[in-house]
Specification:
Elements (H helix, E strand, L loop, with lengths): L1 H21 L3 E5 L5 E5 H44 L18
Antiparallel strand pairs: 1-2
Length: about 100
């Protein structure tokens, strides 16, 4: 499996590298207040991809922390209930008896 993932990674790298080589022309981005940014197209795409990924991670972070906090509370409640209601001896359940029909 590791061999397959290495091959897939290598193929993706070659594809993306080829994409980068084909898109080296300079582009201009115009922002507000007459601010301009110039650079190769592939670097602009990479920068905006990274910025989007970072913003996505920041957007999900509060939800992840809330779920971790809720999970910890639930585990604590479960442990408290388990310790409070734990019998001193364990009783093995008896199998049900089957009554023949008459």
């Amino acid at each position: 499996m590791k061999f397959v993932s290495t091959i897939v990674g290598l193929v993706l790298f070659i594809l993306f590298f080829g994409f980068a080589l084909k898109n080296t022309q300079a582009v201009e981005l115009h922002f507000f207040l007459d601010y301009e940014l110039r650079g190769p197209l592939v670097l602009m795409l990479l920068a905006f991809f990274i910025a989007g990924a970072a913003l996505g991670i920041l957007a999900v972070t509060p939800t992840v922390f809330r779920q971790r906090r809720e999970r910890t509370r639930a585990e604590d409640r479960f442990a408290a209930l388990k310790n409070a209601g734990a019998p001193t001896t364990t009783v093995q359940p008896q199998p049900d008896s089957v009554m023949p029909r008459s």
